[in-house]
């Protein structure tokens, strides 16, 4: 969440940020928040004054009783009234603080100065030229659905029977290819990029969703187990970032870098009318996530590093891709700056998002109270948190299958995956 002191001192900047994000409807909430903040501070001062009075009179009553200088009944009666007023103020203060928190949790993050202004995804900027590889696809192409069915490696029909549309089944060499892809990405990030591997829970509590910003703003996208108060994770970002919730990290240990595999579950509410065929839009998919905790001054350098680590996977797999810098109207509410990596689908004849790499600055750390103590400073500071998909396998699999298909209808396994699969071709 944003710092209330920042909002108090720079409300014009917050309003400008909401306009840039195409969230004009949220602008009145800034004034509402400032009014509630004023009421809170006045109530705190009023309550503190009454508590000071109560403490002073309590000492006077004790002195009167000790010295026998006179009856204290009148003072005691007045203090009962003061105590009732303090209790009423405390109750009102809790109500106001809850309202303040609701608004703070709903307000999006500030935007980095390098984020371009734009109304929607159509105004995102291609910030790195498309990276292509030489593929001979001079024949009638099959899409990933056709390849998956003809080779017996993907079964969306039985997945729909078991769990519903959007829950794919990988079969035989398809399952082995998926597992190999995950292991290759984890091995690359841990052995070459310096990440520590984490295998996190796939179910989390509400406080964890609140910490990373998925709750309450994106509650409609989360699968819920109401009787246990648990939620299926939309991304490993949630459990991994929350590992250090409420902790004071050692400055010497920063940066902290984790890589984690998880299944990801998303309701995709509001996806009516969108293309939901095969892997184009699913409710369950696999992803390797990169999460970093850094000093504030190092976070944008870390963002570029995360982006490079995700690109390295695609380069090793020889998957054509491009990098977008998201504009103000398309960037997620939690991020200050975000890159999307899109892979090319030759059968669909379009790019498909396969990774997002984001810097959240202290937005998540403030919600989770993750701090560190800088050398030579007495006061702790919030860390900056970042994450990036390294990568999601579903749309990556689309591009991998389609680019590596042969005229005969088989699929050649990328060379870097062969030590993991144990086979060179799927036919």
Element layout with pairings:
Layout: H1 4-9, H2 11-20, H3 27-67, H4 73-106, E1 125-131, H5 144-150, H6 156-162, H7 173-191, E2 196-198, E3 203-205, H8 206-212, E4 224-225, E5 230-232, H9 237-241, E6 248-249, E7 256-265, E8 284-294, H10 299-317, E9 321-325, E10 337-345, E11 350-359, H11 363-368, E12 371-372, E13 381-382, E14 384-392, H12 393-403, E15 411-412, H13 418-421, E16 425-426
Parallel strand pairs: 2-7, 6-12
Antiparallel strand pairs: 1-9, 3-5, 4-5, 7-8, 8-14, 9-10, 10-11, 11-14, 12-13, 15-16
CATH-scheme architecture of the largest domain:
2-Layer Sandwich
User: How many helix segments?
Assistant: 13
The dominant shape is elongated
Number of domains: 2
In the CATH hierarchy, what is the class of the largest domain? Alpha Beta
Number of strands: 16
Q: Rounded to an integer, what's the Rg over CA atoms?
A: 27 Å
Mean pLDDT score: 93
**pLDDT < 50 stretches:** none
Measured as a percent range, the helix fraction is 40-55%
Report the CATH topology name of the largest domain: BirA Bifunctional Protein, domain 2
Spatial strand sequence of the major β-sheet: 1-9-10-11-14-8-7-2
CATH superfamily of the largest domain: Bira Bifunctional Protein, Domain 2
What structural category do the secondary elements indicate? Answer: alpha+beta
DSSP strand (E) fraction? 15-25%
| End-to-end separation | 51 Å
> Helix and strand string, N-terminal first?
HHHHEHHHEEHEEHEEEHEEEHEEEHEHE
The largest sheet, given as strand count, sense and whether it forms a barrel, is:
8 strands, mixed
């Amino acid at each position: 969440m944003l710092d209330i002191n920042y909002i108090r001192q720079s409300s014009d900047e917050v309003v400008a940020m909401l306009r840039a994000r195409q969230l004009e409807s949220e602008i009145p909430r800034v004034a509402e928040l400032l009014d509630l903040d004023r009421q809170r501070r006045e109530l705190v001062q009023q309550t503190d004054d009454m508590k000071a009075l109560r403490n002073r009179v309590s000492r006077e009553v004790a002195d009167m009783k000790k010295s026998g200088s006179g009856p204290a009944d009148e003072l005691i009666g007045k203090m009962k009234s003061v105590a009732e007023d303090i209790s009423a103020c405390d109750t009102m203060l809790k109500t106001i603080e809850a309202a303040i928190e609701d608004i703070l949790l709903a307000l999006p993050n500030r935007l980095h100065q390098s984020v371009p202004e734009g109304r929607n995804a159509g105004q995102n900027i291609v910030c790195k030229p498309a990276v292509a590889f030489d593929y001979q696809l001079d024949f009638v192409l099959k899409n990933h659905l056709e390849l998956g069915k003809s080779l017996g490696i993907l079964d969306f029909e039985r997945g729909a029977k078991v769990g519903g549309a959007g829950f794919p089944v990988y079969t035989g060499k398809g399952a082995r290819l998926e597992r190999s892809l995950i292991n290759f990405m984890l091995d690359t990030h841990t052995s070459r990029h310096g990440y520590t591997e984490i295998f996190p829970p796939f179910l989390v509590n509400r406080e964890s969703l609140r910490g990373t910003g998925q709750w309450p703003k994106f509650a409609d996208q989360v699968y819920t187990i109401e009787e246990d108060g648990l939620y299926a994770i939309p991304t490993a970002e949630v459990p991994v970032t929350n590992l250090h919730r409420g902790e004071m990290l050692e400055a010497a240990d920063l940066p902290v870098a984790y890589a984690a595999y998880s299944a990801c579950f998303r309701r995709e509410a509001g996806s009516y009318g969108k293309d939901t065929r095969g892997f184009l839009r699913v409710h369950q998919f696999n992803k390797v996530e990169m999460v970093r905790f850094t000093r504030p001054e190092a976070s944008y350098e870390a963002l570029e590093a995360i982006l490079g680590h995700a690109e390295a996977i695609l380069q090793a797999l020889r998957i054509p891709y491009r990098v977008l810098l998201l504009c103000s109207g398309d960037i997620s509410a939690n991020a200050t700056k975000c890159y999307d990596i899109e892979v090319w689908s030759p059968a669909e004849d379009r790019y498909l998002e396969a990774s997002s790499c984001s810097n959240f600055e202290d937005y998540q750390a403030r919600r989770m109270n993750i701090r560190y103590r800088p050398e030579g400073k007495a006061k702790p500071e919030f860390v900056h948190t970042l994450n990036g998909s390294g990568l999601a396998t579903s749309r990556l699999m689309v591009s991998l299958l389609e680019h590596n298909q042969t005229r005969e209808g088989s699929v050649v396994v990328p060379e870097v995956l062969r030590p993991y699969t144990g086979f060179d071709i799927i036919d």
